[in-house]
Amino acid sequence: DAMVIQNPRYQVTQFGKPVTLSCSQTLNHNVMYWYQQKSSQAPKLLFHYYDKDFNNEADTPDNFQSRRPNTSFCFLDIRSPGLGDAAMYLCATSRAYAGAYEQYFGPGTRLTVT
Amino acid sequence: RKEVEQDPGPFNVPEGATVAFNCTYSNSASQSFFWYRQDCRKEPKLLMSVYSSGNEDGRFTAQLNRASQYISLLIRDSKLSDSATYLCVVNTDGRYSGAGSYQLTFGKGTKLSVIP
């Protein structure tokens, strides 16, 4: 089945220790997104790739970076995680033409910062 | 005004009950509307798209009122397995926000608990 896969599902890192989360998709969608979601809050968009074009949200801290080496893969790098970065990180994909805006999410990576 | 507003709940209803969720959105130029379901500690999953004429999928009915910028979701004959948070989702419009129309704005969700 076509899907969005995230690894790892759970990640524990130390304060200030860089961490990389990965996302892959078999849907062949041209847009990939990274969201941060904290308890009882809406998913918050960090950035997205439209094909190879990177689009950062204005309020995304510089501590968060992303790479998309090819259509199928996208990475989220947190350079110096703080306690406030503990959250669920969700990867999503979509096509970007009218009538097909729905997004499909991976299972998420739950990040704990100690 | 928040872009997408929902009653956070929780809605606690008995099995078999009918429950309705409402959502308002601020961007009058939005064209695409969805309801997503999110189980505790899981990812959001697309429940259904919302069309102008209203649409139904089994026990679920979605309605859109463009004039009032209002979306609703009706669940009939509630099951225990319907317990989840329901997210109202609307596409953005690049003319106003600079964001691409393909981007989505999520509400905080309405929590539903169906009780035996």
Main β-sheet of chain A, in a few words?
A: 7 strands, mixed
- Biggest sheet features of chain B: 6 strands, mixed
What is the average of the pLDDT values of chain B?
Answer: 91
Put simply, the count of helices of chain A is: 0
Unreliable stretches of chain A (pLDDT < 50, length at least 5) are: none
Radius of gyration of chain A: 13 Å
CA distance, first residue to last residue of chain B: 37 Å
The overall pLDDT average of chain A reads 94
Shape of chain A: globular
Classify the beta-strand content of chain B into a percent band. over 45%
H-E order of chain B = EEEEEEEEEHEE
Give a structural overview.
The complex is a heterodimer of chains A (114) and B (116). Chain A is built from no helices and eleven strands. Chain A is an all-beta fold. In chain A, strands 2, 4, 5, 6, 9, 10 and 11 form a seven-stranded mixed beta sheet that branches. A four-stranded antiparallel beta sheet of chain A has the order 1-3-8-7, with no helix packed on it. In chain A, strand 4 (31-37) and strand 5 form a beta hairpin. Chain A is globular, with a radius of gyration of 13 Å. Chain B is 3% helix and 51% strand. The model of chain B has no long low-confidence stretch (mean pLDDT 91). In chain B, strands 2, 4, 5, 9, 10 and 11 form a six-stranded mixed beta sheet that branches. In chain B, strands 1-3-8-7-6 form a five-stranded antiparallel beta sheet, with no helix packed on it. In chain B, a hairpin with a 4-residue loop joins strand 7 and strand 8. The A-B interface holds A 31, 40-43, 45, 48, 50, 55, 88, 90, 94-99, 101-108, 110 and B 4, 8, 31-32, 34, 41-46, 49, 87, 91, 100-104, 106-109.
